[in-house]
Amino acid sequence: MADNTSTNLQDLIDRLRRGDALARRELLQRAHDRLVRIAATIFQEDFPALRGRHELESVISEVWMRLVVALETTQPETVEGFFGLVFLKVRQVLLDMIDRQRRLDARRQDGPLDADEPEALAAFDQADTTYDPGRLALLTEFHEQIGNLPDPQRTVFELHYYGGFSQAEIAQMLELHRKQVSRLWLAATGRLAHWLEGLEPPS
After folding, report:
1. pLDDT of residue 51 exceeding 60
2. Nearest CA among 54, 119, 63, 117 for reference residue 95
3. Which of 60, 100, 116, 128 lies 20 to 30 Å from 5 when distance is taken between CA atoms?
4. Distance CA 162, CA 181 (A)
């Protein structure tokens, strides 16, 4: 994302809170640029059927529109809060996609899908993309549990996993030492691993 320093983003957020419409437009553009990067990794990893540019753009647009609506009623105060809102919308769309995939797989058992299925989901209607129900359940649990991580573990995990920021960038953004960011990342991944294994998370 061009010129994506914490100082620059905080300035845009402060301007937004003062009612600057141009700042809102710039923040949304920054979010869109980041969503393109997220879609090229997270969405394709969880949904390998999304190979084509058109399918990816449809998913990006869905997340972006949810963010547009959210910013009409929510004004984050910090860079951390702004990205938290972006990643919340990413997680919501991912969970919705998993749910749609599950329902589509169930419907396939009864015959071919209708021609008027939403474009963003059409890519899933391929013989080699039917998902194992167990994998869909695991994806659901994983993304839901990310939302349950305590702060600031969730913030660090989201910035790295969803946002693709390096630990050095996260340390600068959150004004933390890199070793502290590393500890928070390890704590978050350890907690998620325990949850996904059906164990009590570490205290």
Report:
1. no
2. 63
3. 60
4. 16
Grade residue 86 by pLDDT with cuts at 50, 70 and 90: very high
Dist. CA 135–CA 141, nearest whole Å: 10
Using CA atoms, how far apart are residues 13 and 4, in angstroms rounded to an integer?
A: 13
Q: Give every CB contact of residue 131 below 8 A, 6+ residues apart in sequence.
A: 101, 102, 105
Query: CA 200, CA 185: separation in Å to the nearest integer?
Result: 18
Structure token pair of residue 51 = 């190979």
Secondary structure letter of residue 129 according to DSSP: G
10 Å Cβ neighbour count for 124? 21
What are the residue ranges spanned by the domains of the chain?
6-130, 149-203
**Top-level CATH class of 149-203?**
mainly alpha
Measured CA to CA, the distance from residue 132 to residue 140 in angstroms comes to 13
Distance CA 9, CA 14 (A): 9
